[in-house]
Design brief:
- By secondary structure, this protein is of the alpha/beta class.
- It has a single domain, classed as Rossmann fold, CATH 3.40.50.720.
- It is about 35% helix and about 20% strand.
- It has nine helices and eight strands.
- Strands 3-2-1-4-5-6-7-8 form an eight-stranded mixed β-sheet, sandwiched between helices.
- Strand 4, helix 6 and strand 5 form a beta-alpha-beta unit.
- The termini are far apart.
- The mean pLDDT is about 95.
Length: about 250
Protein backbone atom coordinates (compact mmCIF):
# COMPACT_ATOMS: atom_id res chain seq x y z
CA UNK A 1 0.00 0.00 0.00
CA UNK A 2 1.39 3.47 -0.89
CA UNK A 3 2.73 5.33 2.14
CA UNK A 4 0.32 8.22 1.63
CA UNK A 5 -2.63 5.91 2.36
CA UNK A 6 -1.33 4.36 5.57
CA UNK A 7 -2.85 6.92 7.95
CA UNK A 8 -6.06 7.78 6.13
CA UNK A 9 -6.63 4.68 4.02
CA UNK A 10 -9.23 3.15 6.33
CA UNK A 11 -11.47 6.19 6.15
CA UNK A 12 -11.06 6.45 2.38
CA UNK A 13 -12.27 2.84 2.05
CA UNK A 14 -15.27 3.65 4.25
CA UNK A 15 -15.93 7.06 2.68
CA UNK A 16 -18.92 6.07 0.51
CA UNK A 17 -20.90 4.92 3.55
CA UNK A 18 -20.05 7.91 5.73
CA UNK A 19 -23.19 9.78 4.68
CA UNK A 20 -25.18 6.89 6.19
CA UNK A 21 -23.31 6.59 9.50
CA UNK A 22 -21.52 9.10 11.67
CA UNK A 23 -17.80 8.83 12.28
CA UNK A 24 -18.39 7.68 15.86
CA UNK A 25 -20.79 4.96 14.63
CA UNK A 26 -18.26 3.77 12.06
CA UNK A 27 -15.55 3.90 14.73
CA UNK A 28 -17.57 1.40 16.76
CA UNK A 29 -17.47 -0.97 13.79
CA UNK A 30 -13.75 -0.32 13.37
CA UNK A 31 -13.22 -1.31 17.01
CA UNK A 32 -15.46 -4.40 16.86
CA UNK A 33 -14.50 -8.09 16.80
CA UNK A 34 -16.76 -10.53 14.94
CA UNK A 35 -16.42 -14.28 14.59
CA UNK A 36 -17.90 -16.01 11.53
CA UNK A 37 -18.34 -19.77 11.72
CA UNK A 38 -18.03 -21.10 8.18
CA UNK A 39 -16.29 -19.69 5.11
CA UNK A 40 -18.38 -21.34 2.39
CA UNK A 41 -21.30 -19.94 0.44
CA UNK A 42 -22.79 -17.84 3.23
CA UNK A 43 -19.57 -17.23 5.12
CA UNK A 44 -17.50 -16.17 2.13
CA UNK A 45 -19.86 -13.31 1.33
CA UNK A 46 -20.34 -12.41 5.00
CA UNK A 47 -16.58 -12.15 5.51
CA UNK A 48 -16.04 -10.09 2.41
CA UNK A 49 -18.79 -7.61 3.25
CA UNK A 50 -17.58 -7.20 6.83
CA UNK A 51 -14.10 -6.37 5.55
CA UNK A 52 -15.41 -4.00 2.88
CA UNK A 53 -17.56 -2.19 5.46
CA UNK A 54 -14.51 -1.67 7.67
CA UNK A 55 -14.68 -4.22 10.48
CA UNK A 56 -11.72 -3.98 12.83
CA UNK A 57 -11.10 -7.65 13.63
CA UNK A 58 -12.54 -10.80 12.08
CA UNK A 59 -12.09 -14.41 13.16
CA UNK A 60 -13.02 -17.06 10.59
CA UNK A 61 -13.54 -20.74 11.40
CA UNK A 62 -13.64 -23.64 8.94
CA UNK A 63 -11.82 -26.94 8.51
CA UNK A 64 -12.52 -27.55 4.80
CA UNK A 65 -10.63 -26.98 1.56
CA UNK A 66 -12.14 -25.63 -1.65
CA UNK A 67 -13.24 -28.06 -4.36
CA UNK A 68 -14.90 -27.77 -7.76
CA UNK A 69 -18.42 -28.11 -6.35
CA UNK A 70 -17.92 -24.85 -4.46
CA UNK A 71 -17.54 -22.75 -7.60
CA UNK A 72 -21.28 -22.29 -8.19
CA UNK A 73 -21.70 -20.12 -5.08
CA UNK A 74 -18.63 -19.61 -2.87
CA UNK A 75 -17.12 -16.25 -3.77
CA UNK A 76 -13.72 -17.06 -2.30
CA UNK A 77 -13.48 -20.22 -4.43
CA UNK A 78 -11.66 -20.22 -7.78
CA UNK A 79 -9.57 -22.63 -9.79
CA UNK A 80 -6.56 -21.17 -7.99
CA UNK A 81 -7.92 -22.07 -4.55
CA UNK A 82 -8.97 -25.68 -5.25
CA UNK A 83 -7.40 -27.89 -2.57
CA UNK A 84 -6.45 -24.91 -0.42
CA UNK A 85 -7.71 -24.30 3.11
CA UNK A 86 -10.80 -22.10 3.02
CA UNK A 87 -9.68 -20.05 5.99
CA UNK A 88 -6.22 -19.36 4.59
CA UNK A 89 -7.53 -18.53 1.11
CA UNK A 90 -10.13 -16.23 2.65
CA UNK A 91 -7.59 -14.54 4.90
CA UNK A 92 -5.34 -13.88 1.91
CA UNK A 93 -8.17 -12.41 -0.16
CA UNK A 94 -9.46 -10.21 2.64
CA UNK A 95 -5.98 -8.82 3.22
CA UNK A 96 -6.03 -7.64 -0.40
CA UNK A 97 -9.50 -6.12 0.00
CA UNK A 98 -9.01 -4.27 3.28
CA UNK A 99 -5.61 -4.45 4.99
CA UNK A 100 -7.05 -2.57 7.97
CA UNK A 101 -9.22 -5.55 8.94
CA UNK A 102 -7.27 -7.94 11.15
CA UNK A 103 -8.16 -11.53 10.17
CA UNK A 104 -7.61 -14.53 12.43
CA UNK A 105 -7.97 -17.92 10.73
CA UNK A 106 -8.91 -21.04 12.70
CA UNK A 107 -8.59 -24.07 10.44
CA UNK A 108 -10.67 -26.39 12.64
CA UNK A 109 -14.20 -27.67 12.99
CA UNK A 110 -16.03 -25.93 15.83
CA UNK A 111 -16.67 -28.48 18.59
CA UNK A 112 -17.62 -28.50 22.25
CA UNK A 113 -13.91 -28.78 23.04
CA UNK A 114 -12.72 -25.62 21.28
CA UNK A 115 -15.65 -23.23 21.83
CA UNK A 116 -13.71 -20.98 24.21
CA UNK A 117 -10.64 -20.86 21.98
CA UNK A 118 -12.70 -20.03 18.90
CA UNK A 119 -15.43 -17.74 20.23
CA UNK A 120 -14.04 -15.99 23.29
CA UNK A 121 -13.87 -12.21 22.97
CA UNK A 122 -16.27 -11.86 20.04
CA UNK A 123 -18.68 -8.93 20.02
CA UNK A 124 -20.92 -10.87 17.62
CA UNK A 125 -20.99 -14.50 16.46
CA UNK A 126 -22.28 -15.13 12.94
CA UNK A 127 -23.68 -18.48 11.87
CA UNK A 128 -22.61 -19.39 8.33
CA UNK A 129 -22.99 -23.09 9.05
CA UNK A 130 -24.59 -26.05 7.33
CA UNK A 131 -25.33 -28.34 10.27
CA UNK A 132 -27.68 -28.14 13.24
CA UNK A 133 -25.45 -29.48 15.99
CA UNK A 134 -22.77 -26.84 15.50
CA UNK A 135 -25.45 -24.15 15.38
CA UNK A 136 -26.81 -25.39 18.69
CA UNK A 137 -23.47 -25.39 20.53
CA UNK A 138 -22.51 -22.01 19.06
CA UNK A 139 -25.87 -20.42 19.89
CA UNK A 140 -25.71 -21.82 23.44
CA UNK A 141 -22.22 -20.41 23.92
CA UNK A 142 -23.42 -17.04 22.64
CA UNK A 143 -26.37 -16.97 25.05
CA UNK A 144 -24.23 -18.07 28.01
CA UNK A 145 -21.69 -15.33 27.31
CA UNK A 146 -24.19 -12.62 26.34
CA UNK A 147 -22.94 -12.40 22.75
CA UNK A 148 -25.40 -11.64 19.92
CA UNK A 149 -25.82 -14.61 17.56
CA UNK A 150 -26.78 -13.92 13.95
CA UNK A 151 -28.36 -16.94 12.29
CA UNK A 152 -28.55 -17.48 8.55
CA UNK A 153 -29.54 -20.55 6.57
CA UNK A 154 -30.51 -21.53 3.05
CA UNK A 155 -32.16 -24.37 1.17
CA UNK A 156 -32.43 -24.39 -2.60
CA UNK A 157 -33.79 -20.97 -3.54
CA UNK A 158 -34.90 -20.07 -0.02
CA UNK A 159 -33.11 -18.18 2.73
CA UNK A 160 -33.73 -17.02 6.30
CA UNK A 161 -32.04 -14.84 8.89
CA UNK A 162 -32.64 -13.83 12.51
CA UNK A 163 -30.67 -12.24 15.36
CA UNK A 164 -30.61 -13.76 18.85
CA UNK A 165 -29.62 -12.10 22.13
CA UNK A 166 -30.25 -12.75 25.81
CA UNK A 167 -33.41 -10.65 25.44
CA UNK A 168 -34.91 -12.80 22.67
CA UNK A 169 -36.03 -16.41 22.42
CA UNK A 170 -33.07 -18.76 21.92
CA UNK A 171 -32.27 -20.34 18.58
CA UNK A 172 -33.41 -23.75 19.84
CA UNK A 173 -36.60 -22.35 21.33
CA UNK A 174 -37.57 -20.35 18.25
CA UNK A 175 -37.20 -23.32 15.92
CA UNK A 176 -38.62 -25.85 18.43
CA UNK A 177 -35.56 -28.08 18.25
CA UNK A 178 -35.60 -31.33 20.25
CA UNK A 179 -32.50 -30.15 22.16
CA UNK A 180 -34.26 -27.12 23.64
CA UNK A 181 -33.83 -27.16 27.41
CA UNK A 182 -32.03 -30.51 27.35
CA UNK A 183 -28.47 -31.70 27.73
CA UNK A 184 -26.53 -32.45 24.57
CA UNK A 185 -26.09 -36.18 25.07
CA UNK A 186 -26.09 -38.95 22.48
CA UNK A 187 -29.87 -39.15 22.51
CA UNK A 188 -30.42 -35.48 21.71
CA UNK A 189 -27.60 -35.49 19.16
CA UNK A 190 -29.26 -38.40 17.37
CA UNK A 191 -32.58 -36.56 17.37
CA UNK A 192 -30.89 -33.55 15.78
CA UNK A 193 -29.20 -35.67 13.14
CA UNK A 194 -32.58 -37.03 12.02
CA UNK A 195 -33.74 -33.52 11.11
CA UNK A 196 -31.28 -33.25 8.21
CA UNK A 197 -30.11 -35.70 5.57
CA UNK A 198 -27.91 -35.59 2.50
CA UNK A 199 -26.31 -32.61 0.80
CA UNK A 200 -28.80 -29.74 0.53
CA UNK A 201 -29.47 -28.18 -2.89
CA UNK A 202 -28.22 -24.63 -3.43
CA UNK A 203 -28.07 -22.09 -6.23
CA UNK A 204 -25.38 -19.41 -6.17
CA UNK A 205 -27.21 -16.15 -5.38
CA UNK A 206 -29.06 -17.48 -2.32
CA UNK A 207 -26.18 -17.98 0.15
CA UNK A 208 -24.56 -14.78 -1.07
CA UNK A 209 -27.70 -12.78 -0.33
CA UNK A 210 -27.85 -14.32 3.14
CA UNK A 211 -24.17 -13.51 3.68
CA UNK A 212 -24.74 -9.87 2.77
CA UNK A 213 -27.77 -9.70 5.05
CA UNK A 214 -25.90 -11.22 7.98
CA UNK A 215 -23.06 -8.73 7.54
CA UNK A 216 -25.59 -5.90 7.43
CA UNK A 217 -27.34 -7.11 10.58
CA UNK A 218 -23.98 -7.09 12.35
CA UNK A 219 -23.28 -3.59 11.04
CA UNK A 220 -26.69 -2.33 12.21
CA UNK A 221 -26.30 -3.92 15.63
CA UNK A 222 -22.84 -2.44 16.25
CA UNK A 223 -23.41 1.02 14.79
CA UNK A 224 -26.96 1.38 16.10
CA UNK A 225 -28.48 2.38 12.77
CA UNK A 226 -31.66 0.87 11.35
CA UNK A 227 -33.89 -1.95 12.56
CA UNK A 228 -32.31 -5.26 13.54
CA UNK A 229 -34.16 -8.51 12.70
CA UNK A 230 -34.39 -9.71 16.30
CA UNK A 231 -35.94 -13.09 17.05
CA UNK A 232 -38.73 -14.14 16.99
CA UNK A 233 -38.78 -12.20 13.73
CA UNK A 234 -37.43 -14.20 10.83
CA UNK A 235 -36.49 -12.49 7.57
CA UNK A 236 -37.26 -14.92 4.73
CA UNK A 237 -37.31 -15.10 0.95
CA UNK A 238 -37.60 -17.46 -1.99
CA UNK A 239 -35.86 -16.21 -5.11
CA UNK A 240 -38.46 -17.95 -7.26
CA UNK A 241 -41.22 -15.86 -5.65
CA UNK A 242 -40.69 -12.10 -5.54
CA UNK A 243 -43.66 -11.66 -3.21
CA UNK A 244 -41.97 -13.89 -0.60
CA UNK A 245 -39.53 -11.27 0.68
CA UNK A 246 -40.50 -10.20 4.19
CA UNK A 247 -40.50 -11.03 7.88
CA UNK A 248 -42.56 -13.55 9.77
CA UNK A 249 -42.88 -13.95 13.54
CA UNK A 250 -42.41 -17.49 14.85
Amino acid sequence: MPTRYKEFGYWEIASRQMSIVTKSEQQRFKDAKITVIGTGGIGGQTNEMLARMGLGELTIIDKDEYDLSNLNRQTMASLDTIGISKTEATKDRLRKINPYTKVNAINEMLTEDNLDKALDGADIIIDALDNLFTRVIASRYAMEHDIPFIHGAIHGTQGQISVFTNETPSYEEMFSLPTNGRQLDEETKNELSKLTSGVPPVIGPVPNIIGCLEAMEAYKFITGIGEVAYAPKLLTFDLLDLDSFGTVKL
